[in-house]
Amino acid sequence: MAERQGQTVPDALLTRIGQVVMLHHGGDREEARRRLLDLWTEIGANGAPLHRCTLAHYLADTHDDPSDELAWDLRALTAAEEHGGSVEVRALYPSLHLNLAADYVKLGRAEAARTHVRRARRAAVALRDDSYGDGVRAAISRMELRLGEGEGEGEGEWEGRSEWERGW
After folding, report:
1. DSSP line for 67-124
2. Hey, which end of the chain has fewer CB within 10 Å, N or C?
3. pTM across the whole model
4. Which residues does the chain have with pLDDT short of 70?
């Protein structure tokens, strides 16, 4: 968001991304993926890091193949790191690392998942004490418990579930 004369001006691209995300949450995953990919093409590799991060973050949830989901979640993290340490980006890190942990669980890479859930926990200090922050912290705790159960136990529960279905 930008500010103009003391008022907040909405970011048009983030608004468009949000509209497509609503389409995805409404059940039209294929159309949402197509539209998000169109937006990705529109902004290009040199688009604003916050836009690339947001797009890649949501694109990951539209893919069925865990390797594709991981690739998009890694793009999201890379873009966030390019954006810098702003407050808005610091609040994204817990969710970004949590998604990566879930991706690695699906791929049977428990140690990589543990690394990212630890990063999510450390990054959670940037979360506010609100419903979003509470939800992300609870999801981190659930993932920590899941990973503490031992190699491979219960991992199938995460397959094919979007970030929202997993409770994040």
Report:
1. HHHHHHHHHHHHHHHHH-S-HHHHTTHHHHHHHHHHHHHHTT-HHHHHHHHHHHHHHG
2. N
3. 0.81
4. 1-10, 149-168
CA–CA distance, 95 with 24 (Å, rounded to integer): 18
79 vs 47, 88, 121, CA distance in Å? 10, 13, 20
The span from the CA of 14 to the CA of 94, in Å, is 20
Name the one residue in this structure whose structure tokens are 């959670």.
124
Sequence-distant (6+) residues with CB within 8 A of 46 are: none
Q: Find all residues with CB under 8 Å of 120, minimum gap 6, and list them.
A: 93, 94, 95, 96, 97, 98, 101, 136, 140, 143
Cα–Cα distance for residue pair 47/147, rounded to 1 Å: 36
